[in-house]
Amino acid sequence: MPKAEEVKYTKTHEWLHLAGNEGTVGLSEHAQKEMGDIVFVELPKPGRKLEKDKPCAVVESVKSAFDIYSPLNGEVVAVNEAVSGDPALINQSPLEGGWLFKVKADNPAEAGALMDFAAYGDFLKQNAH
Amino acid sequence: MYVPHTEKDKEEMLKAIGASSFEELVKQVPSRFLWPKFDLPQESLDESQAAARLSELSKKNCRPLSFLGAGAYERYSPAAVKAITSRTEFLTAYTPYQPEASQGTLQTIYEFQSTVCALYGMDCANASMYDGASSFAEAVRATVRVTGRKKIVYAAGVHPQYMDTLRTYFAHSPEYAYVKVPMKDGVMDKAALPALLEGAACLAVQTPNFLGLIEDLDGVADAARKAGALLVAAADPVSLGVLKTPGEYGADFAVGEGQSLGLPLAYGGPYLGLFSCKKEHVRQMPGRICGMTKDKDGKRGFVLTLQAREQHIRRDKAASNICSNEALCALAATVYTALLGPEGMRELAEANMGAAAHAAERLSAIKGCSLKFKGPFFNEFVLSVPGSAAAMREKALGQGVDIGLPLAPLYPELGETLLVCATEARTEADIARLEKAVKEAI
Predict the structure, then answer these.
(1) Which residues in chain B have their CB less than 8 angstroms from residue A60's CB?
(2) How far B317 CA lies from chain A's nearest CA (Å)?
(3) What is the pLDDT of residue B89?
(4) d(Cα B319, Cα B321) in Å, to the nearest integer?
(5) Structure confidence at residue B313 (pLDDT)
(6) What was the pLDDT predicted at B1?
(7) DSSP string covering chain A
(8) pLDDT in 10s for each residue of chain A, 129 residues
């Protein structure tokens, strides 16, 4: 399983771990902390075509509901059934047990435009209020 | 009329919208509705004169002995219903956002939801919708969200106005397809289902159907499931005192018109939408949901719950744009059902069946009249009549009896027929008057 330093980040706080042309997507440590206790997850169905930067899943916490945006163009190849049954996994281990879905990328090079760990850290600092 | 905007405010707003004038902004509204003309008395009247004039005018209101049903049912409502709903704590209270100030109202909503679940045999219910039609349309919309499909299969016996409401919801979405399951002997032709259900979001049915007939829904949920579709069932809650519940035949969503639970007809409303579903679909439920929980001292309390579905949080992605309920009507229905109890609901349903069966027997014995269908019915039935049903109704109204709804405008294939309803509110003497009125109207 990836470490926080090894994955790429979006401005909407998803992380992406690419292995070949298959990417695993989840919520960043920062995002899960901001959302609070997560109580419900709605994941895309396997086989669904995803569009980069378009909403594809919903995460609901005790505070509110949040859209999850796809970091890549591609197709859903697997979803984490375990988080559907136990959404708290996202809070407990956002990068491990709390991954959301796997996507087969149309063009893995798209990931190059995403932020690395350091850039994401700067991004969070800039946007801190 | 007091409008708090200045001319300058209005100009700015019109500019922001991109309309040159107010008239242009509302140009799609026919002018007869926009600037209605009222025929008011020319001379000014003082209060007592005005009261006398209005009282005189009110005599024009026609209150015939009514055998109309078709989705709205006249019932006797015990005096306790009005006594309780008239209490100022209930009558004047608004939406209970603050649990610390609204435990009484929230508890009645919770009791209402529990009542709807018990009646329909479902896991979860919401705090109510506008009416049966909006509940029906919202249930179908939910199946579209769950399945991602846009084909809606519905039985020909679904209330035509429920379908109209659904089509209005989807009026700007031409990609939706509506497929009607044909009728056979007044009920859904189940043999036609497998071919029609392919690729459907749902099968929407109603029992008793619009023609009063009881649909046999055994196996229908399985047929839907096989095609990956969900089952939406509309049912008159009073009929569930004797009929199988939607939960028993496997419905995913069950809805109904709650007016039937002792609410007055009141010239068309307000009505009460009942909405329930299986637990797995609870996040697709529209509207308010009240939940039971414990406070920090471990004491029972009630709060609005699962609000992440609603538009104040989810904005354009909310399950529905309805985030209110018919609280006072829901309270009336809750009090009515609590007064009757499970045994009383069964007796009420039996009394309805008895009254309608008696009326059907008397009317079908009239020369030229006959029952259009042989199947079992609940509290209304289709009567074939000799000659124009509309003309007969008009004639009988002159005698103070409304003999039923002519069906030709809605179901031309049924020929000259009347949909006749007799609830428990109709006595034997009333039915004798109906028989006489029909005879004389032929």
Answers:
(1) 283, 308
(2) 9
(3) 86
(4) 7
(5) 78
(6) 61
(7) ---GGGSEE-TTSEEEEEETTEEEEEE-HHHHHHH-SEEEEEPPPTT-EE-TTSEEEEEEESS-EEEEE-SSSEEEEEE-HHHHH-THHHHH-TTTTT--EEEEES-GGGGGGSB-HHHHHHHHHHH--
(8) 788 888 999 999 999 999 999 999 999 999 999 999 999 999 999 999 999 999 999 999 987 888 999 999 999 999 999 999 999 999 999 999 999 999 999 999 999 999 999 999 999 999 886
pLDDT at B39: 77
**Pairs of residues, one from chain A and one from chain B, whose beta carbons lie less than 8 Å apart:** 16
The pair of structure tokens assigned to B215 is 């649909």
- Listed as ranges, residues in chain B with pLDDT below 50 are none
Q: Which of A42, A65, A67 sits opposite B313 (nearest CB)?
A: A65
- Chain A residue numbers touching B314 (CB-CB < 8 A): 65
Cα of A65 to nearest chain B Cα, Å: 6
- Name the nearest CA neighbour of B115 among B227, B247, B274, B264: B274
Determine whether the interchain pair A42/B283 forms a contact, defined as Cβ–Cβ distance below 8 Å: yes
What is the DSSP code (8-state) at residue B25?
A: H
Q: Which domains does chain B have, with CATH numbers?
A: 65-75+341-441 (3.90.1150.10), 79-335 (3.40.640.10)
Give the strand pairing for A14-19 and A22-27.
Answer: antiparallel
pLDDT value, residue B153: 98
Instruction: Residue B234: name the closest of B190, B279, B203, B196 by CA.
Output: B203
Angle made by CA atoms B114, B116, B121, in degrees to the nearest 5? 95
Return the SS3 of B41. Answer: coil
Report all structural domains of chain A as residue ranges with CATH numbers, in order of start.
Answer: 6-105 (2.40.50.100)
Tokens for B397, please give them: 């109204």
Contact state of A40 with B283 under an 8 Å Cβ cutoff = yes
For residue A85, the chain B residue with the least C-alpha distance is B280
- Residue A81: what pLDDT? 95
| Token pair for B282 | 């609870």
Structure tokens at A107: 């063009």
Amino acid at A69: Y
Tell me what pLDDT residue A27 has: 96
Residue B131, pLDDT score: 96
Nearest to B308 among A45, A55, A65 (CB): A65
pLDDT at B323: 78
Distance of CA A119 to the CA centre of its chain: 17
ipTM over 0.85: no
CA distance A20 to chain B (A): 30
The residues with which A66 forms a beta bridge, in sequence order, are A59
Angstrom CA distances, B318 to B31, B79, B273, stand at 34, 40, 19
pLDDT of residue A65: 85
Query: For the segment B416-438, what is each residue's pLDDT rounded down to a tens digit?
Result: 999 999 999 999 999 999 999 99
